[in-house]
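Encode chain A's predicted structure.
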Amino acid sequence: MSGTSQRLATRIRTKHRMNLAAIFKDSNYKIAQFTPQEIDTLEKSIFIKQTKSGNVAYI
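Encoded structure for chain A:
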């Protein structure tokens, strides 16, 4: 895969991935509690489930 294709694929995967900062936005938790590796692992495990009241993030 060329460098441009890899960057595009990464951008697409990242665009559709929920991040912890968005989840913690209105909570007592802070992103600083986690190492970069922990953040990456957690963000990769997040999935979105559609419910009657809207989309909900699950880990």
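Residues 8-15 have pLDDT under 50 and may be disordered.
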